[in-house]
Amino acid sequence: MHESHIQAAIICAKTQGLQMKIRSGGHDFEGVSYVSDVPFFILDMFNLRSINVSIEDETAWVQAGATVGEVYYRIYEKSNTHGFPAGVCPTVGVGGHFSGGGYGNMLRKYGLSEEELLAMESFSHTKSSWCVSQETVTVFRVQRTLEQNATDVVYRWQQVADKLHEDIFIRMIIDVVNSSQSGEKTIRARFFALFLGDSQRLFSLMNQSFPELGLKETDCGEMSWVESVLYWYGFPPGKPVNILLSRNPRGLTHLKRKSDYLKEPIPKDGLKYIFERMIELETPVMMFNPYGGRMSEIPESAKPFPHRAGNICKIQYATNWIEDGIEASNHYLNLTKMLYAYMTPFVSKFPREAYLNYRDLDLGINHNGPNSYVEGAVYGITYFKGNYNRLVQVKTKVDPDNFFRNEQSIPTLPSWRK
Questions:
Q1: Cα–Cα distance, 377 to 362 (Å, whole number)
Q2: Which residues are catalytic?
Q3: What phi-psi label fits residue 189: left (phi over 0), alpha (psi between -120 and 50 degrees) or beta?
Q4: 359 and 338 share a domain?
Q5: Which of 212, 272, 329, 417 could serve as 413's disulfide partner, Cβ 3.0–4.6 Å?
Q6: pLDDT tens digit sequence for 316-347
Q7: Residue range of the domain that includes 263
Q8: What's the pTM?
Q9: Residue 105 located in a structural domain
């Protein structure tokens, strides 16, 4: 496919009254890029995937169909000390990732992927700069169960995770496991870290700021940045770096994702309540990604992505299952919604904020009819807060006929407002 084919496809779609769905190169949590209730076709960017890296000026032109893993590998081919602040999952397509507020484990140091975007050209090309990483980074994985004082450690993480040195990123994952002591269900809190520096400096900073975790020097491993990409995605040791070029996900399951933002630490009695509910539900997992650092320096009105200062972290609710069928899907979807409901008292309010790239149709669907502006505000304000109306104004100017649309796209102004 050539870029000129895109223009022809758009003209044809408008002439024939077809809806166009756009697929970048990776996955879509709610399938809005390849499912529709009306006649449609897919503009598949999958093979528009060229990546041209310039070490001299530290930029790259990347086509929208490339994956994050391909970008990482092409940078690695040119330099051992450069990296790019994007997602942990290498099979994510850059088109949706970059435009939807993509982030990774260098979030606190460099912000979102969109912070590094220098230019965009039509559908297909994005020019990005990237960060100079370290020759050596340090990683660790530490876990604690309820029997190992997990409640106290989780409570303390909420107080310090967004205030640690910006070179430290510690993701916290909470799930339900069988206790090694009693065999009964218990809560496990896992802490995954990337530090942009050596282990000695990390160990010193952690002793000063987060000694409650009980980090040991033997928990820490030093490696190159690209090796840390493989480590974070869970590839076994010894995997060649070119595995990042693979577009095949490690596994295929059914899944549901939801999101929240945490403004204040959940008190210990609140954690106890949530942990008890999670043990009842068993399957849903919560992932806490800390903010602070660079994320607190950019005003929320500066870019479409509004979730900046004032957030301790973003929460992802994740439920995976392998059983097929509507009955199984409804069961697991309901479990996820229940955990989301239990968290209501502890997360952001008015609006209850959400993260666009964890697409969630529970927040509202736009039928793209006469009420599209009002329908769009239901989910648009949760994703974009005060930036929603500005995005609607831009949309109205550049796409007044609302040709580029999906179930949660930005609508145009109603005709009486235009």
A1: 14
A2: 358
A3: beta
A4: yes
A5: 417
A6: 999 999 999 999 999 999 999 999 999 999 99
A7: 137-219+252-363
A8: 0.95
A9: no
